[in-house]
Automatic annotation (TrEMBL):
Residue positions where Phosphohistidine is found in the record: H78
Organism field: Streptococcus sp. KHUD_010
Active site: H78
Coiled-coil stretches noted in the UniProt entry, renumbered to this chain: 29-56
One Gene Ontology term of the molecular function aspect: metal ion binding
Keywords: Coiled coil, Magnesium, Metal-binding, Phosphotransferase system, Sugar transport, Transferase, Transport
Cofactor(s) listed in the protein's UniProt record: Mg(2+)
Biological process annotations from GO: phosphoenolpyruvate-dependent sugar phosphotransferase system
Cofactor binding comment, as recorded: Binds 1 Mg(2+) ion per trimer.
InterPro entries referenced in this protein's UniProt entry, alphabetically: PTS_IIA_lac/cel, PTS_IIA_lac/cel_sf
The UniProt record lists the keyword Transferase: yes
Name of this protein: PTS cellobiose transporter subunit IIA
Length: 105
């Protein structure tokens, strides 16, 4: 895998995880306004974006597993960090949504 292909994959991960992160923050805003169904929809949309980022990551792992040499650059480290923190943020948002709904009852 050449440097350009690796950078494209990294930016794809950053793009999708960044979109997901924005959507999770929109879901937090909906929760604060007691719009729980809208928040849940946004968290599902964020998950779809995260799946796209994860597909890019999985493709890299498959390349590596098949013997392709992949030289890790700082942009890939950044992309992985972006993806993992956004995945964690979404998990926290799901828990918060559950708690918000529980308090409403």
């Amino acid at each position: 895998m050449n440097q350009e292909e690796l950078q494209v994959a990294a930016f794809e991960i950053i793009l999708h995880s960044g979109s997901a992160r924005t959507t999770v923050h929109e879901a937090f805003a909906d929760m604060r306004e007691e719009h729980y169904d809208e928040a849940a929809e946004k968290l599902e949309a964020a998950n779809a974006e995260l799946l796209e980022a994860h597909h890019a990551q999985t493709n890299l792992l498959q390349e590596y597993a098949s013997g392709t040499e992949i030289k890790i650059e700082i942009i890939m480290v950044h992309a992985q960090d972006h993806l993992m923190t956004t995945m964690t943020l979404r998990e926290v948002a799901l828990e918060m949504l559950s708690l918000y709904r529980k308090v409403e009852k």
